[in-house]
Design a protein that fits this description.
Largest sheet: 8 strands, mixed
Radius of gyration: 34 Å
CATH topology of the largest domain: Nucleotidyltransferase, domain 5
Number of domains: 5
Oligomer: single chain
């Protein structure tokens, strides 16, 4: 413990046992972290004690802390409100900060004979008409997309009248989502009328648009303009279909914000950097009206992170729904609820659903978060979601980027072998696969076999760890094809090497399909609909395939070697040399005496014996 840390600890021990806010400052006096405490002395003093369970972020923050200040409050709730205010004021480096870069969005109607509709984020002085501003770019983009499809306006980048009638219509024309001005299928007059109808729809909503369109359809029918009336009827039907789809999608969805966090890792400058993404889906009046996501450094404690993220999000937003759905425990949930209540002026509940419609919405939100994070770190959303789900299922601090899996194969205790496969970022990494021949004993003992294999693997780690490659790298997770017996055998090995690596067994059902994961004496059931199930099943199938293939190859080589040792002058060593050199019995049979004699360790007499034996076989 440094002298400065000792001084800070001594100062912390003189703090009062009352609620308040503390501000950590660096050598330049800049606030680098703001926190709240129920009892200032208890909370602040923990930062300046020697503790092995602290995360990297906290350790770095303490190392950069030169001093701290504090403000006492009358209650923990007042401390929370003050904490929010100070974080907004100082933007401290070590608090999780959400960058609100949404800005405003507009609907743009370009000028000219053939105007177009666009969703844009800036209002320019370019002669165009703008509708807005709107706070949700998601809602604006969705509304413009709907309007273009309903009123059969182009969704491509073609410019009219330059491109009018100059090409064949695209697929959108044939699925009745575009009138195809590019192929001359609509007149300029009818095109402008469709644009006006779309603007009415965007400005007044579907009810106003339907009322106006219905009135015009009746007028067209009265004037015997049956073609125009039919077009207006089709437009009305298109709007009604869109509304029906929205009702189906949003059926039974209460006004709420849905939050989910997904974690992953990215390679940056030859270093692995842990990242996370929080996605938010916002529902109002039975419709999804907004979607947001935020990328930040991987949090060490998800419960604490959710607290900071909820607080940060609603510090930037005026609307607080009656229901806040989250994907796990929230630290100080009651306090955060109280703060949301005061902000909204009514009751706001934080909830963690386990089943039903809201759990499905949560899964949808998590999928969105995984996709956004995957794009950020250069992976697929499917792999990112599976690794994050597996980490949550097994209680891991972060998604396992590097997984090693082991299996044993033998025939009634003979030809005992083991296989090791590696999954890197959720995909098989065949460059890391290894094969083992069980050497420590003969006979059948799967537990002892697993213990031997892991012992040899970890011994190699301590010899090669400077390379940080292959055996010189420790896995983030070890999976064994087997139950608690295999786990217990390997755990003893890990304890002997003083290594703390998450260890679990993969349990099969009576049809040899993955059923559960076991560890610590308990089984964790795997739901076949979850992405973690697919990942674990893939790992188990791959390690079993790899190990069994190796066992068959070894058994075949042993059988062939036995046949060769029946030839005079050929022992085990020469049989092995022959198979290594020629690769197969067929190649040995087709070899000449001279080719056989060229094998290392064989003389001409033995080569002639082999040639004669192969000829008579």
């Amino acid at each position: 413990m440094t002298k400065n840390i000792k001084n800070l600890r001594e100062k912390a021990m003189h703090l009062p046992q009352s609620p308040g806010v503390y501000l950590m400052k660096n050598a330049k006096g800049r606030v680098i972290y703001v926190g709240k405490a129920k009892a200032l002395k208890n909370r602040v003093s923990t930062y300046f004690t020697d503790r092995s369970d602290r995360g990297v972020k906290v350790i770095k923050m303490v190392e950069n802390t030169a001093d701290f200040d504090y403000i006492m409050t009358d209650s923990e709730f007042e401390a929370l409100v003050l904490e929010c205010s100070l974080i907004k004021q100082y933007q401290p480096k070590y608090n999780i900060l959400l960058k609100d870069d949404k800005g405003y969005s507009y609907i743009k109607i370009t000028p000219g004979q053939w105007p177009s509709l666009q969703a844009v984020k800036q209002k320019l002085d370019d002669g165009a008409e703008y509708i807005g501003p709107f706070t949700s770019s998601f809602a604006v983009t969705k509304a413009v997309d709907e309007a273009l499809k309903i009123f059969l306006l182009p969704q491509c980048s073609k410019v009219f009248p330059q491109d009018y009638g100059k090409s064949r219509p695209c697929l959108n024309y044939f699925i009745r989502q575009c009138a195809a001005p590019c192929a001359g299928k609509i007149s300029c007059e009818n095109y402008n009328e469709a644009v006006k109808e779309a603007v009415t729809f965007l400005k007044g909503g579907s009810d106003a648009a339907l009322k106006d369109l219905g009135k015009r359809m009746e007028e067209a029918a009265d004037n015997l303009e049956f073609e125009k009336a039919a077009r207006l009827r089709d437009t009305i039907n298109a709007i009604n279909k869109t509304r029906e789809k929205q009702k189906v999608v949003a059926a039974g969805v209460k006004d709420q914000d849905v939050f989910a966090i997904v974690r992953g890792s990215a390679q940056e400058d030859s270093r692995t950097k842990e990242k996370a993404c929080m996605a938010v889906l916002r529902f109002s009046q039975g419709r999804l009206f907004d979607s947001e996501h935020f990328i930040f450094e991987n949090p060490e404690d998800l419960s604490s992170a959710r607290r900071e993220l909820l607080r940060g999000f609603y510090m930037m937003r005026d609307r607080v729904p009656p229901l806040v759905t989250v994907d796990g425990e929230v630290e100080d949930a009651e306090l955060i609820e109280q703060w949301l209540n005061s902000k909204a002026g009514r009751k706001a509940e934080i909830s963690v659903p386990l089943k039903g419609k809201r759990a499905e919405l949560l899964e949808m939100c998590r999928t969105n978060a995984a996709q956004k994070l995957a794009y950020s770190i250069g992976r697929t959303g499917k792999d990112t979601a599976a690794l994050d789900e597996l980490a949550r299922l097994l209680g891991l601090q972060s998604p396992p980027e590097y997984i090693e899996a082991y299996d044993i194969s033998h025939t009634a205790g003979s030809e005992n072998v083991a296989g090791m496969v590696v999954f890197k970022n959720g995909r098989p990494f065949k460059g890391g696969y290894k094969k083992f021949i069980i050497k420590g004993f003969s006979g059948q003992d799967d537990y002892a076999s697993m213990a031997e294999v892991l012992t040899r693997r970890l011994e190699r780690y301590f010899k090669e760890k400077d390379s940080a490659q292959g055996f010189g790298r420790l896995p983030d997770l070890i999976l064994l094809d087997g139950g608690q017996g295999q786990v217990n055998a390997v755990q003893t090995v890990l304890d002997r090497f003083n290594l703390s690596i998450p260890l679990f067994g993969m349990v099969k059902d009576n049809r040899h399909k993955t059923r559960a994961i076991t560890g610590g004496g308990e089984e964790i059931a795997l739901n076949s609909k979850r992405s973690a199930f697919t990942l674990v099943s893939s790992v188990q199938e791959e390690v079993h395939r790899f190990t069994v293939d190796y066992h068959r190859q070894k058994r075949k080589t042993s059988t062939l070697s036995g046949r060769l040792t029946e030839i005079p002058g050929v022992g085990k060593a020469r049989a092995k040399a022959l198979l290594t050199h020629f690769k197969s019995m067929k190649a040995i049979k087709e070899a000449t005496v001279e080719e056989l004699a060229a094998v290392k360790g064989l003389n001409k007499k033995t080569a002639e014996n082999i040639f004669e034996a192969m000829k008579n076989d």
